Amino acid sequence: MSDSRSDDRSVVYRLSPDCTSDAIEVGERYHARVNGVVEYGVFVDVSKHVSGLVHESDMPEDASYDVGDDLVVELAAVRDNGDLSFEPVAGDDFETVERSVQYDVAAVETLADRVGDTVHLEGEVAQVKQTGGPTIFRVRDETGIAPCTAFEEAGVRAYPEVDLEDVVHVTGEVETREGSVQVEIEDIDVLDDPAATDLRDRLAAAVAERAEPVETEPLVEWPALSGLRNDLREVARQLRKTVLESRPIRMRHHADGDGMCASVPVQLALEQFIDATHQDDDAKRHLLKRLPSKAPYYEMEDATRDLNFGLEDQARHGQKLPLLLMLDNGSTEEDTPAYEALDHYDIPILVVDHHHPDPEAVDPFVDAHVNPYLHGEDYRITTGMMCVELARMISPELDGELDHVPAVAGLSDRSKADAMSDYLALARDAGYDEEFLHDISEALDYEAYMLRYDSGATLVNDVLNVGGDEERHRDLVPFLAEKAETAVDRQLDAAMPHVEHRTVANDANLYTIDVEEHAHRFQYPAPGKTTGEIHDEKVVETGEPVITIGVGPDFAVLRSDGVRLDIPQMVSDLNDELPGAGVSGGGHLVVGSIRFVPGMREQVLDALIEKMADAELDEELRSAPTR
Amino acid sequence: MSDSRSDDRSVVYRLSPDCTSDAIEVGERYHARVNGVVEYGVFVDVSKHVSGLVHESDMPEDASYDVGDDLVVELAAVRDNGDLSFEPVAGDDFETVERSVQYDVAAVETLADRVGDTVHLEGEVAQVKQTGGPTIFRVRDETGIAPCTAFEEAGVRAYPEVDLEDVVHVTGEVETREGSVQVEIEDIDVLDDPAATDLRDRLAAAVAERAEPVETEPLVEWPALSGLRNDLREVARQLRKTVLESRPIRMRHHADGDGMCASVPVQLALEQFIDATHQDDDAKRHLLKRLPSKAPYYEMEDATRDLNFGLEDQARHGQKLPLLLMLDNGSTEEDTPAYEALDHYDIPILVVDHHHPDPEAVDPFVDAHVNPYLHGEDYRITTGMMCVELARMISPELDGELDHVPAVAGLSDRSKADAMSDYLALARDAGYDEEFLHDISEALDYEAYMLRYDSGATLVNDVLNVGGDEERHRDLVPFLAEKAETAVDRQLDAAMPHVEHRTVANDANLYTIDVEEHAHRFQYPAPGKTTGEIHDEKVVETGEPVITIGVGPDFAVLRSDGVRLDIPQMVSDLNDELPGAGVSGGGHLVVGSIRFVPGMREQVLDALIEKMADAELDEELRSAPTR
Amino acid sequence: MSDSRSDDRSVVYRLSPDCTSDAIEVGERYHARVNGVVEYGVFVDVSKHVSGLVHESDMPEDASYDVGDDLVVELAAVRDNGDLSFEPVAGDDFETVERSVQYDVAAVETLADRVGDTVHLEGEVAQVKQTGGPTIFRVRDETGIAPCTAFEEAGVRAYPEVDLEDVVHVTGEVETREGSVQVEIEDIDVLDDPAATDLRDRLAAAVAERAEPVETEPLVEWPALSGLRNDLREVARQLRKTVLESRPIRMRHHADGDGMCASVPVQLALEQFIDATHQDDDAKRHLLKRLPSKAPYYEMEDATRDLNFGLEDQARHGQKLPLLLMLDNGSTEEDTPAYEALDHYDIPILVVDHHHPDPEAVDPFVDAHVNPYLHGEDYRITTGMMCVELARMISPELDGELDHVPAVAGLSDRSKADAMSDYLALARDAGYDEEFLHDISEALDYEAYMLRYDSGATLVNDVLNVGGDEERHRDLVPFLAEKAETAVDRQLDAAMPHVEHRTVANDANLYTIDVEEHAHRFQYPAPGKTTGEIHDEKVVETGEPVITIGVGPDFAVLRSDGVRLDIPQMVSDLNDELPGAGVSGGGHLVVGSIRFVPGMREQVLDALIEKMADAELDEELRSAPTR
């Protein structure tokens, strides 16, 4: 007992129910209640755990007690066998003092020094995992997470009343198991208010403090990006908080160069932060998953699969449902049905994207939405540029590691941002000339295709040289870039002779090519990039405004240069004009792709070309990014 | 020894071979056999483990023994070093009493109370798993399954003579490991007859008793279904038996609404029963796998994959090969090649289906075949309706949990069963109005599409509210139903303008639509459902007999209303008439789909339509189920 | 100390730095260096671990020592507390003798007998695996591999300075864990030269010795194959070495009959060798993976995936990158881009193939290339025939197990090798008649299709009866062969009526068939085999030279009989003549397949047929193998 004892005989202690015999002392007085009447006296409780006898001989002659009666007693003696002897105290002029057990609550971070001790822990249940043997509760306090094990019966859930995300008090012995510290639970209680609220507040405060992003200086001075830094800090804060709360993160990103420049640094930053905050070496595998998206938006199939995985992990490993982090994807109306599906579960969503956003559709479903258009900027700030800053706000260990990445991102998306020259200079200082940066961008594209929907972690790390091997990087990039170039040449050899040209009403050059008939199927580059390459050649060749359409059986890829298109508007108009054509699509304003019903292909293309022929020419719109 | 000893000197014991020195006593007499002749006497065996010397000095003068001679001896003394001294007994007027070792065979269910004891177990080897360290034998007796470990050398198979499914006697010490009880094997012997047969009989009897299905009352009184109850009880019995024998179950089901209403309750029931009968929390993951089928029948590819998985699990985890449970699939001739493939391995097959069956083809390969047609009923008894009853016969914990499921199954398959009103009433009492039930059915369909061939356990549980979360269910179903409806509308917008109409010879309205040309490819709903939705609109629109054909490059989906088609017959006729068209197909009588060689598409369609034009109209055939 | 001590007072020992007090003895003399000067004397070091005092009273009057001074001392006394007392020795006429610690280095294979002892191990770090608890170093010496565990902090990498493939000295206690022997590391040091080089040499020598292939006699006497035996022995040596060095092997093989006859025996041989050389029962799962290839060559996608898996295993399990073993694939120029990609990583490549090779393209990237063409032989020596010999060189346990396999391989590839009759006789002696061998070949083909890109280990083992179950084999093969035949008949029923015939300039019969239009799509047999079956029928039907072309939208399968085609040359010519057609292809000289851009299909076919019409007829070229 750590409280000081009073000698004042007028003091009567009221013991809290969990007090043990450690909380009493001969000569002290306690509030007691009769719990049994026997021939030779009455038994009284002074707490849940402390009882004793008031012998008949010590009672007043006329005394008569019934079970449930309250009285005041003084502890007269503790017998050798531990039995307690109380004497009744007359009168009612007492000062009552509450006495509760003063736990010495241990911080998780100190457990390693207390192996063999019985300790008290207080925290939130971050995971409940039933093994074939014991049940494992992972309990998180302000300083860390400790596995606490309880055994009821082999494979049987112990303490079924204790749920994920409850706040609890654990009593148990600290032991080591295969080198890890764990607590063998003697008792675990769900805390009630006010203790519960108090603890939750403390945990939240501790998390909030530790979630505070790293203070960074931007890699380059760039007013356009500065306006987004607060938004990025908020995303960094939420991601760090998510890690600290042991909630898994599922990262979905656009499967192209900019998407990888965005996702790989954030992945590395989160892995570093997980390593720094979780004892378990496997934590980063459980808590973070990076997945390229199949489509240029978040498809319902992907969301269904993500949800399904999350629910299975919850059921099988007692994990929280994940947070979804969308990178270089996620800002458009096409993403919202999938978001809405996740909204029915407890799955927060964060978006960092530079595609033309539809905040009205998206914002009701997401917890953060960072997009340059929301700050009056545009796609020239690529997602990779933003995410390099984001990664640096998440982990302090990245300084100097990412200097080349914004330039790669910019080249990948052909960004004409003012800051490109600064980024190129920064990359140059880090040992990357522009040609090599361009090679990285091509190599990323090529690997993205080869890996399909596998994240290809280690390999991509080498290609981008973020968390990879520098020597391999220098070796691998030129090789892959050359393979990519050869493959592009092969595709162009097949396609170029079949590209059709016409000059349309607004004097733009219109090129069309059937990318399924006149290109190698299922080979790199895919129709989108093949169209882009043709387009780029034609832009250089003509030096005039160019529109290029790569047509497939139920899709068309659109590229334009020097023409003011509004693809979202065209999609909407085509839908009105051609009922039954089922036109949909997306991308940037002047560059994107549309889908339609195969049987309406000719009608859709005719109508589309008519619209394009009417579009205004605009010198400013040259060399826009590819989606 | 627990038997009482006789003082009657005329008694001679015949010891069973496994008796040890515990089974003998000085002064008792035993049948013995000479196993060695030495200068100073002969050595005799009284059991495999008990031998001793008959000293020359104790023999009759003229005695002469050879190895193999039988005699009767009395135990004269046990020396300090354990050596036994026997004396020969003359005469032949003995009463022979058999004495065998009286093991105190421990029941598996009592092991937890005997930690530290050396015990005897008898049972069947249900699994042999070689780990990097010891070999683990899982031994099953009448009361449960115990892991028994033996260590020969790291990673080396101990007791290679003991195989899966042998019956064995184990001697070993009970210990706990990570909270689980296990037996460290001192000795394990394969039992010979008669002990082996006796034990197998006892195990079989115990399994038979525990496999007896739960006594249930049907959810609604329905004579048509009552006829099937005995068949379903037999399936329930076999499934419970399969669980008790630790044989894995692989469940394949039709990937549609009725298929899920059939499979999800049976899955839950089996999981509950596994939990109740297996200590290991992971058992349900090892013993049960639910998989939607790709095709409307059991394809050879699926069977090959199932077999391959089963063989790998056998090789790697020492598991038995699985039992195959086919639900809402499996009754047709098209399933038989796959069944025949499994027949070459020890894989029992159970079928519960309501598609038009071909018992002659199917029954030779299956252990049970439940189908309403086999009882003079038809597809109106959906598989979901049957399987809800089946699930309740498997697990007693399901009461009240499944009241809404038969109605969903009926709506999914548009059943016109008389009992539909009772099922709808039952669901209404459980809080489900018809519109909501219909929404569940649409939501299931939508999720089945989104999940492709993933079982999507937890998510589907929520959608159907079987083993799921009620709150989420109420929240999720309207959302998914609405998404499904939007997607259907989008598909119909594209398709409807291109539906072609003609009136054929029998006055039916024939509608045809190219579902690849005039629908969104690879998007929900797939061609089958798209055709169905068009058909339903046309039925309502015309109020007359309608046939709808959704045509693809190598398939056609057929829907009819008010026309007496016989699709299996048409397929057979088309095959005769159009050699080289490769027509195949299946489904219900009046609703189904056919496949053909792409180059013969026009000829097949022409011939098909001709046949349909000849079909009889029939007022009774309205609103048939979709496959 | 095991070295003998000298009494010669002129001897002065120079102790190696790692000597402990075990290496010294009172009365001996040592080279020492002053490490501290105090009031009462100087402290000297005689090794890193051994220091002591030279007391002032024992020094010459005029002596004056500074830190760093060298002197010779004699050990005068060892005090009770272990302190050492040295006396300086005057003079310089000494014989210096080096004394180093004589570890009793334990061999891994002896550890099981030394549980509880502290031992020294020396070897190469074959794997570094970080668990949630300790770090596990798997240390390989000349006799085996031992897991050595070190605990720094839960989940934290211990001894981060020790890397994969370092050679190390481990001191630690031998213990058993779940029956496996392991060493709990007290200290682990990376060895420096010369000790490192010495150890590496010893390990290499030991590996080289153990890697020496099994001495075998060929299954049949066949001069053509004899020329390849040395090459095969070299591959066997490298594979055994790879296993001994714990490097994983990734086996890619052609997904057809010959490919399986090649890969399954080698897989079994390697598994047996792994079992014989690795304690861990799981080793074969970690060290060997067999994968059928999607394409008839090693695609960049496959290489990317293989690389990605290898890198992930390296990152997660600390494994070495794999060796790639190409079987019945890998000899052609089309394989080289993928090889080049792997070349950027430390991934050795071995090739055994019988397709027309391009050694100039291939050999720069591979460590071994076995191909009959490189020895003046041709495709008639199938890869299966070669690999049966290879397997027998890897594992001595295979004798008699593979006698039927070369015949199956030969029949699968329709080999007209002289040795076929010997192989058929060998198989007959093993109980296989020709019809049954043919059935095996058809069954393999069928299973290869059904399994797609799954290796289907156990199932294929049964079909081929290599490491499978004989009884099942006998049962399964006729069943699968019959299913395959039925499926072929069904495909031919659809295709045959649509086969077009013409007689071309060289008088050969040319048959063409659209294999996508007039065959069942996505069903067995695939276009290649369907074309082959049509071809075979036409060869028999006409008895004349036949060319058959199975055409798809962007490919054509070519079969010829009695016509001297040179497919690689035709591909090259077509590419020159038809820019934009993107013709590519491969296979054997007279049998193969080409790919092209769909929009150029007619032009390509016309040009192709023209070339074929010009080809020379050649009686010798009948019944060539199918690719």
From TrEMBL, chains A, B, C:
Coiled coil: none annotated. It comes from the Archaea. Residues 27-89 form the S1 motif domain. GO terms for molecular function: nucleic acid binding. CDD domains: RecJ_OBF2_like (cd04487), S1_RecJ_like (cd04473). InterPro entries: DDH_dom, DHH_sf, NA-bd_OB-fold, NA-bd_OB_tRNA, S1_domain. This is DHH family phosphoesterase. It comes from Salarchaeum japonicum.
